[in-house]
Design brief:
This protein has 105 residues and is an alpha+beta fold. It folds into 2 domains: 57 residues, no CATH class; 43 residues. It is 55% helix and 14% strand.
Length: 105
């Protein structure tokens, strides 16, 4: 799990760097970034995932995800899996979001 989390963090960090400097990494992420770059945008220096024209969700860093899930779960009345998933997906994004929510609920 730790190795996978590190790979996701690296991928997202490379995506942000590519959007900023237009430099691809010389590693396993370069092809993935070329394919996925159309789905990302920087807004005020923060990475966002495009969900459709004009609508984006901020990338939530690993450090804040657990607190975010817990806070939303508490504030919205201990929603079941589908409810909390829909709620979170309307406010933020990260690559392992579904798996992290499943682990929480």
């Amino acid at each position: 799990m730790e190795r996978e989390r590190n790979n996701v963090v690296e991928y997202v960090e490379h995506m942000k760097k590519y959007l900023t400097d237009e430099i691809l990494p010389d590693d396993k992420f370069d092809e993935l970034i070329k394919i996925e770059v159309k789905n990302f945008v920087l807004i005020d220096g923060h990475l966002h995932w495009k969900i459709r024209d004009g609508i984006t969700l901020p990338y939530l860093e690993w450090l804040f995800r657990g607190d975010f899930i817990q806070r939303m779960h508490n504030e919205y009345g201990y929603l079941p899996y589908h409810g909390i998933t829909n709620l979170l997906k309307s406010r933020a994004w990260w690559p392992t979001m579904i798996r992290d929510i499943q682990a929480f609920v």
